[in-house]
Design goal:
Radius of gyration: 48 Å
Keywords: ATP-binding, Cell membrane, Disulfide bond, EGF-like domain, Glycoprotein, Kinase, Lectin, Membrane, Nucleotide-binding, Receptor, Serine/threonine-protein kinase, Signal, Transferase, Transmembrane, Transmembrane helix
Oligomer: single chain
InterPro entries: Bulb-type_lectin_dom, Bulb-type_lectin_dom_sf, Kinase-like_dom_sf, Pan_app, Prot_kinase_dom, Protein_kinase_ATP_BS, S_locus_glycoprot_dom, Ser-Thr/Tyr_kinase_cat_dom
Membrane topology: Single-pass type I membrane protein
CATH superfamily of the largest domain: Bulb-type lectin domain
Strand order of the largest sheet: 28-27-35-31-36-33-34-32
Structural class: alpha+beta
CATH architecture of the largest domain: Orthogonal Prism
Organism: Cucurbita maxima (Pumpkin)
Subcellular location: Cell membrane
Number of domains: 5
Helix content: 10-25%
């Protein structure tokens, strides 16, 4: 029969690698120093014993023999897990040879990063140490120069037929080979590091506890002064102790996280399993990705750190630590108080509802150690008392609290109300809102968080209850204000969207058909005032093709001038009639309103000193007015031209002035529309062939009511 152990010595002089193969799917590596007679004898002994059983996965299997011990590794050797993430061996700090330890570390990280130390309180004094199995099957650490073992698993075994396994999780286990029962494991005895699948908690039946303890110093793994554990007394909670005194409190489990760890979420890479039953209360963290290396450490100064290994940058990335804030220290503000680190303008400590500082003088001096006391101590039992809600807090120390996970929050309030000793209550599960936790006596270590936390209902007397009721009725709550703001913004956006859609639809309709110019755009006079002259519907509508052909496609040579709202071109219709086309610029300030205004006004007005409109053209974004052609253009072309100025003698000038005056008199008085031009200037006075003046450009004109003598304008217009 072939032995399940196969040893192959490689050709390298140092170190020597021995592959122990027990099945085709697993290779356990044992890295050793160069062979010597003692090692070879031990290997032969292991080979002999190994022929009687098979090694478990990721394990080195040996059997103890009466009156002897079999070494697993010696100083200088390493036992590596099958995934090569962890290694077991001897180490020291600062290359010391007088303080040697046995431990487990991350094998793939260049810098020594420990996860567990066996003989943390009793180091070896030289390099002759050995990790071995004694004749009872227990693991022990000893040195040939020392008469007693420095560390032992000290487990009770029914058989010495055991295997030592270094699992891929970093757990060193002593397993009974036949029953495959774990007799002892390093995960049950953490040092200062908690890695995935380690447990923290308490076995309620045996009292055995899984907890972290700090080192004494960075280079001394001996048991330090800080420990982190779950306190099962009252309602179980996570507590960090300095000696036996609470240093920081993680609080009770809320159904999704520790009450004092607001950063803890299920959406991260951590899988959390929390157990609270008659057998035990414990928490175990796993990882969603097996390749992620993650750890939580308790350092010698009393701080917890959680970090992940960044393989690319070759460093640990810390994403959480505690305690960090002033309010994190246990009972920072004394009993019956609430620590609010976000209350920067005032003292961070404030009394809970119904309480006042024990010493106002000390409170003024920012010494909150005395805490708070009841304002009216004898008024909270059968005197109309009630409860005030304190939002987003880490609930008080629950070591004296009582819990009933089958009770609703309403029933919890009634139960607390009936018991005069009950000082506060909350829901046990913040996810479902179910379960009941009640407090009796002083409320210790309450603090506020910015965005998360539980609601704590504090018992107050009738006077205090009335005061808080008035405050809540007089001012909208913090939850109502955001709702109102969101609703208002949504309403504004809805109205704006409707207006925008209406404008788009309106513009689309205007583009699809020529507008009807039956209205006016000033203060509306009565309909009777529009019976003067032609109506806008009487005006002929020119086709765009006709206008383009008449102006030779708006040829520059036909351009007569340019006003504030567009250029004016000379044109000639097919019947030989000459026209002037005012083409509204697409980017001009005159919009559809001014265009309609000008068409409406000129169509209604008939006077020999007003320019005569022949028609209009509207096509897509093009808007044009067709006037009678006046060959002498505008008055300014005569006034400001040296050669033409001589044609205007004083008699001619007087006639032009009188003509303009007659036109203005008609607009202001004789016309029933009563129009104010608002843009009268030399460039808007056109001259016909006989130099008779005609007022033009009514885009800025405004209609007045019959009896109206003044009006206000909303914008500055004209020249």
């Amino acid at each position: 029969m072939q032995s399940p152990f196969q040893f192959s010595l490689n050709s390298h002089p140092s170190p020597l690698m021995i592959n122990i193969v027990n099945n085709p799917f697993f290779t356990q590596k044992l890295i050793m120093n160069p062979p010597n007679p003692t090692v070879l004898i031990s290997l032969l002994l292991v080979t002999f014993v190994g022929s009687f059983f098979t090694v478990a996965t990721a394990a080195v299997a040996v059997a103890a023999i009466d009156n002897s011990s079999i070494h697993i590794i010696k100083d200088g050797d390493r036992l590596v897990s099958s995934n090569e993430n962890f290694a077991l061996g001897f180490f020291s700090f600062n290359n010391s040879t007088t303080r040697r330890y046995v431990g487990i570390w991350y094998n793939t990280i260049p810098q020594l990063t420990l996860v567990w130390v066996a003989n943390r309180n009793q180091p070896l004094i030289d390099t002759s140490g050995t990790l071995a199995l004694d004749r009872h099957g227990n693991l022990l650490v000893y040195s040939h120069t020392q008469t007693i073992s420095l560390w032992s698993t000290n487990a009770t075994l029914r058989s010495n037929d055991v295997s030592v396994q270094l699992w891929n999780t970093g757990n060193l286990a002593l397993v009974e080979r036949q029953s495959r029962k774990v007799i002892w494991q390093s995960f049950d005895y953490p040092s200062d590091v908690l890695i995935p699948y380690m447990k923290m908690g308490v076995n309620r039946r045996t009292g055995f506890s899984w907890f972290l303890t700090s080192w004494k110093a960075q280079d001394d793994p001996a048991t330090g002064n800080f420990s982190c554990r779950i306190n099962p007394t009252g309602y179980p909670q996570l507590v960090l102790y300095q000696g036996d005194v609470p240093w920081w409190r993680g609080g009770p489990w809320t159904g999704r996280r520790w009450a004092g760890v607001p950063e803890m979420t299920r959406s991260f890479i951590i899988n959390t399993s929390y157990i609270d039953n008659a057998e035990e209360v414990s928490i175990t963290n796993g990882v969603t990705v097996d390749t992620v290396l993650m750890r939580m450490t308790l350092d010698e100064s009393g701080s917890l750190h959680r970090s992940t290994w960044n393989e690319q940058d070759q460093k640990w990335n810390e994403f959480w630590s505690a305690p960090t804030e002033w309010c994190d220290k246990y009972s920072r503000c004394g009993p019956n108080s609430n620590c609010d680190p976000y209350n920067t303008e005032q003292f961070q400590c404030k009394c809970l509802p119904g309480f006042e500082p024990r010493s106002n003088h000390n409170w003024f001096l920012r010494d909150p150690s005395g805490g708070c006391i009841r304002k009216r101590p004898n008024a909270t039992c059968g005197s109309g008392e009630g409860f005030v809600k304190v939002e987003r807090v880490k609930v008080p120390d629950s070591s004296t609290a009582r819990a009933d996970k089958s009770m609703s929050l309403e029933a919890c309030e009634q139960a607390c109300m009936k018991d005069c000793k009950c000082t506060a209550y909350t829901s046990a599960n913040e996810t479902t809102g179910f379960g009941c936790v009640t407090w009796y006596g002083d409320l210790l270590d309450t603090r506020t968080y910015a965005n998360v936390g539980q609601d704590l209902y504090v018992r107050v007397d009738a006077v205090e209850l009335a005061q808080y009721s008035q405050k809540s009725n007089g001012h909208p709550s913090k939850k109502v204000i955001p709702i109102v703001v969101v609703c208002f913004v949504a309403l504004v956006l809805l109205v704006a969207s409707l207006v925008y859609l209406w404008e788009l639809l309106k513009k689309r309709r205007e583009r699809e058909r020529p507008p009807s110019f039956s209205g006016n755009f000033g203060d509306p006079p009565s309909t009777k005032e529009f019976d003067e002259g032609r109506t806008s519907s009487d005006l002929p509508v020119f086709d765009l093709v006709t206008i383009v052909k008449a102006t030779d496609n708006f040829c520059f040579n036909n351009k007569l001038g340019e006003g504030g709202f567009g250029a004016v071109y000379k044109g000639k219709l097919t019947n030989g009639e000459e026209i002037a086309v005012k083409r509204l610029a697409k980017n001009s300030g005159q919009g559809v309103g001014e265009f309609k205004n000008e068409v409406t006004l000129i169509a209604k007005l008939q006077h020999r000193n007003l320019v005569r409109i022949l028609g209009y053209c509207v096509k897509n974004k093009e808007k044009m007015l067709v006037y009678e052609y006046l060959p002498n253009k505008s008055l300014d072309s005569f006034i400001f031209d040296e050669s033409k100025r001589a044609l205007l003698n004083w008699r001619r000038r007087f006639e032009i002035i009188c003509g303009v005056a007659r036109g203005m008199l008609y607009l202001h008085q004789d016309s029933r529309l009563k129009i104010i031009h608002r843009d009268l200037k030399a460039s808007n006075i056109l001259l016909d062939a006989n130099l008779n003046p005609k007022i033009a450009d009514f885009g800025m004109a405004r209609i007045f009511g019959q009896d109206q003598i003044q009006a206000n304008t909303n914008r500055i217009v004209g020249t």
